[in-house]
Protein: ABC transporter ATP-binding protein
Organism: Parablautia intestinalis
Amino acid sequence: MARNHFIEVKNLVKNYGTGNIKVTAVDNVSFYVDKGAFIGIMGASGSGKTTILNILSTIDRMSGGQVLYDMADISQMTEEELSDFRQENLGFVFQDYNLLDTLSIEENIMLPMALCRHKTSKARLKEEIESRVKSISETLHICDILSKFPYEVSGGQKQRAACARALVNNPKLILADEPTGALDSNSSAMLLHTLQIMNRELGATILMVTHDVFSACYCEKILFLNDGKICSELERENMDKKEYLNRILDMQFKIGGDDIYAE
Ligand SMILES: Nc1ncnc2c1ncn2[C@@H]1O[C@H](COP(=O)(O)OP(=O)(O)OP(=O)(O)O)[C@@H](O)[C@H]1O
């Protein structure tokens, strides 16, 4: 069944600085993300991956072009509208988890819902929050650590808690920036599996920046960036994992993405 374009990025430009010190971090980039897709962005350091993610997350403003979410142009929104938009539509997973050490895991997960300006009554909101935290924690297998504090749990558990927090508001889009960057291989695999559950079972659209080919294998499509431009795209289609992995490695080698072939 055909899916709707959920995000449309049209001729996106981002410049930092001015005059002689102007850096074009994103140079006329266009792409789309379908509802329910799991898309990866890869490219060498400095190629503009995080800048694109920051613009899509509305944290950073674009210099030119358009970003449409379900046809709504975010460049036309006021700060207040952007803040509501973020809270209602987006979930974030970063490399460094961003959990607050003074709150328990459960309180960390609840935070976005508590901050959301809900129209429901306080009693109803409490009920809603508790049932949502319970169901997400079950899905992500973290029920047994809810009362602990972030410093009392492992990196992988922290990252799953961060995923739960990203998902608690039922966001339409999860933006993940190097989510496995600080994890060992077991925790990485668990986190990627978690993202897959978010995508397949909970219906979230995912856009993930990664340097890691094994993480990229989880994406149905990968955009490769070079010097602020999309230089190539790769879709998994019917490829098996090994073939997909090899194609990603080849593409990285071609664009000089990482020193994976270095001696
Ligand atoms: N706030 C800023 N001010 C000036 N230049 C910036 C700023 N942020 C990013 N840049 C520049 O924009 C370019 C793209 O940076 P960006 O962080 O998006 O790359 P990246 O692909 O995410 O890199 P990495 O993989 O190392 O995180 C780089 O040349 C970077 O130096």
